[in-house]
UniProtKB/TrEMBL annotation, chains A, B:
GO terms for molecular function: delta1-piperideine-2-carboxylate reductase activity; protein homodimerization activity; pyrroline-2-carboxylate reductase activity. Pfam families: Ldh_2. The lineage of its organism: Bacteria, Pseudomonadati, Pseudomonadota, Gammaproteobacteria, Pseudomonadales. Belongs to the LDH2/MDH2 oxidoreductase family. One of its GO terms (biological process) is proline metabolic process. It is an enzyme of class 1 (oxidoreductase). Keywords: NADP, Oxidoreductase. This is Delta(1)-pyrroline-2-carboxylate/Delta(1)-piperideine-2-carboxylate reductase. It comes from Pseudomonas chlororaphis. Transmembrane segments: none annotated. It catalyses: L-pipecolate + NADP(+) = Delta(1)-piperideine-2-carboxylate + NADPH + H(+); L-proline + NADP(+) = 1-pyrroline-2-carboxylate + NADPH + H(+).
Length: 341, 341
C-alpha cells in the first residue's frame, strides 16, 4: 500500500485503527468512554473523507480545550421531550455530538410520527464539521437541516466590527440511485479551519475573505487570525443567513450567541460554547412520487446541464479511496497523535 | 399631500383604495372573490412597502397569465391534515397565496401544539414576494422559514446551462422592541423582477449577475431576459442553497421542479407552476429567556458593531411613510391599472 501513498513517509491506517487511536487520546484527556467514542468516530470520519480542516487537525484543539477545563468531557446530556415535534437537550457544557447522539432516537421517532421534528441543543460545544450530523438521517430516508453558531469572527455586512460566528448550514437528503445529497457551508466567505490551515502552510487567501485588525481587507490568514475577522459569503445575503443561524442555533435553543461566552480564564480553550438546531423531515409524508426518486431526477438534470461535481461528491470519492487504501497521515502527524494517546 | 409626492404627476392612494382597485382587476380577469382579495392585499402590501419589483409592476403579468388559461383563478385549495406536524395543500393549479391562507389556521395550530410544523404546497403558482408569506407568523410570535422554486433561469455553479429558478428563501422572527426580523433573498445573484425593472429602465446591471444566450457574462438585463440566464449568488454556496430549495419546494411537496412545466401552449403565461414549503416553529417551546427578548439582544449587538440597517428596515420605513402620505403611483401606471379594472 505504501507505494500508493501520496506523501513520502506517510503510513495508511484503517478507519478502526484511527478511531481507536483518537479514542485513547480523548480518554487520556478526561472524557467519558461515550464522549470519546462519539468524538473519535466523528473526527476519524472527517479525516477519512478528506475533510482535513475538521479531521485530526482538530485534535490538538480538543486536547488543549479539555486541559483548560473549559468543556466538560464527562458531561451527560439531558434530553427533554417537549412536544410531539420538539426535543431539547441540555448538553451540560459538554460536546454537541454526544448530545445529538443521546437525543437522536427520540428525534427520529418524532420526525416519522409528526412528519417533522426539531432538536434544540444548548449549552454545547461544536468543534467539528456539520455534515456528519445530518448525513446519517439521509441514509435513513429522512431530510435534515442543521445550523450551529460559533464564536465572533465575522463582520456583518454593513457593519464595522465582527459579531457573528462562521455559522454553517448543513443539509442532507436521500436519493434513489446514489449517495445522499449533502452539503455543509460556512456562512463566512471561508471556513475558520481553512484559514488556520492556510496560516500553517504560509499561503495567501483569495481576495474578499477577511479583514485585518484595523478592518482593512487582507489576504494574509495570520492577519485574520490575529485580531482580524472574516467576511460573510455573498455580501448582504450570506450575512442575513448568518444572522438567521444565530437566531436558530442560539435564541431558539437557549444557547449562547457567538459573542456571549468568555473563555479568557481558560487559556487553550478553542471550542465555542453555543447551541445547535436540527430540523428533520420525513419525506414519506409528502404528496407525489417517492422523494428519493425525485431527488435522483434533480441530480440527473444537474448533470444534464453540465455539472460534473455535486456537493459531497469529493467526500464520497475520498471515502471510497480510504476504504480501499487506508487513511494516510504523515509521519509527523501520526507521531504527534501517538504522543497524545 | 401632492406637494410631498416624489414624481411629477403622481397621485397618492390609500392602501384600501389600492387593494380595491387591484381586487377589481383580478375579479374582472376571472378570479374568485377570495383569490382576488388575497392577491390584491399581497400586491398592494408590496407596493406600500416600496418592494416595487413585486408591487403593481406585477399586475400585467398576473392579467396576461389569467388570460392565457395557464392558471386557475377560481381554484379551491384542498387542505390535507397528514400528521401532527405536517399539512399538505393541493393548490389545484391556482395561486400559492390562497393555498397558504386556506391552510394557515391548521398550520399555526400544529406549530403551537407540536412545536414545529411544515406546510407543503404543491400544484401552485407563486408570482409575488416571499416575505409577505412569513412576516405575519412573526407578528404572532412564531418563527417562519419559507422557500419557493420558480422557473429555469439560473445556471448551477459549475454547470453550463440554466436549470434552477431564482428560488428565494424567506425568514421571519419576532423581536421584543420593534418590528420582526424579516428577510427574503433570491438565491440568484439578482431577483428576476429586478432584472425586468432594469430592462424597462434601460439600465445596466452590476457585473456577475448573469450570462447571455451564449453563456457569456453580460451586464445587459435584456440579454439575460432574452435567452440568457442568471448566476447564483455567492458561487457554489448560493448554488447549493438553490438546489436545496428545489428539493424542499418541489420534491418534498409533490410540486414541479423549476424545469418541469411547459407553458408554451399558453402565450402570456408568466407564473411558475411549482411548489412552496413553509416551516413554522413555536419559540415558546425553547429553553432559556424569551425568544423575542433574545432576538432583540442580537439586534442591539448588531447595531453595536456599526450596522445601521437591518434586513426589512427599509420596508418598515416605506410602510410608515405610505401610512402617512398614501401610496404614490405615477399617472401612467395608475391609468394602466384603471384600464384593467
Amino acid at each position: 500500500m505504501s507505494a500508493q501513498s501520496e506523501h513520502a513517509g506517510s503510513r495508511p491506517l484503517s478507519l478502526d485503527a484511527l478511531v481507536s487511536l483518537l479514542e485513547k487520546i480523548f480518554l487520556r484527556h478526561g472524557t467519558s468512554a461515550e464522549v470519546a467514542r462519539v468524538l473519535a468516530e466523528n473526527c476519524a470520519g472527517a479525516e477519512r473523507d478528506g475533510a482535513h480542516s475538521h479531521g485530526v487537525f482538530r485534535i490538538p484543539g480538543y486536547v488543549s480545550t479539555l486541559k483548560s477545563g473549559w468543556v466538560n468531557g464527562r458531561a451527560v446530556p439531558v434530553v427533554e421531550d417537549v412536544a410531539s415535534g420538539f426535543v431539547r437537550v441540555d448538553a451540560a457544557n459538554g460536546f454537541a455530538q454526544p448530545a445529538l447522539a443521546a437525543a437522536r432516537p427520540l428525534l427520529v421517532e418524532k420526525a416519522r410520527s409528526a412528519g417533522i421534528a426539531v432538536l434544540a441543543i444548548r449549552n454545547s460545544h461544536h468543534f467539528a464539521a456539520l455534515w456528519p450530523d445530518v448525513e446519517p438521517f439521509a441514509y435513513e430516508g429522512l431530510v435534515a437541516l442543521s445550523v450551529v453558531n460559533s464564536m465572533t469572527c465575522v463582520v456583518p455586512h454593513g457593519a464595522d466590527r465582527p459579531l457573528f460566528g462562521t455559522n454553517p448550514i448543513a443539509f442532507a437528503a436521500p436519493r434513489a440511485a446514489g449517495e445522499p445529497i449533502v452539503f455543509d457551508l460556512a456562512t463566512s466567505a471561508i471556513a475558520h479551519g481553512d484559514v488556520q490551515i492556510a496560516a500553517r502552510k504560509g499561503e495567501l487567501l483569495p481576495p474578499g475573505m477577511g479583514v485585518d485588525s484595523l478592518g482593512q481587507p487582507t489576504r494574509d490568514p495570520k492577519a485574520i487570525l490575529e485580531g482580524g475577522a472574516l467576511l460573510p459569503f455573498g455580501g448582504h445575503k450570506g450575512s442575513a443567513l448568518s444572522m438567521m443561524v444565530e437566531l436558530l442555533a442560539a435564541a431558539l435553543t437557549g444557547g449562547h450567541f457567538s459573542f456571549e461566552f468568555d473563555w479568557s480564564n481558560h487559556p487553550g480553550a478553542k471550542t465555542p460554547w453555543t447551541g445547535q438546531l436540527l430540523i428533520v423531515i420525513d419525506p414519506s409524508k409528502a404528496a407525489g412520487q417517492d422523494f428519493a426518486e425525485r431527488s435522483q431526477e434533480l441530480v440527473r438534470q444537474m448533470h444534464g446541464v453540465g455539472l460534473r461535481r455535486l456537493p459531497g461528491d469529493r467526500r464520497h470519492r475520498e471515502r471510497a479511496k480510504s476504504a480501499e487504501q487506508g487513511i494516510t497521515l504523515d509521519e509527523q502527524t501520526l507521531a504527534q497523535l501517538q504522543a497524545l494517546a
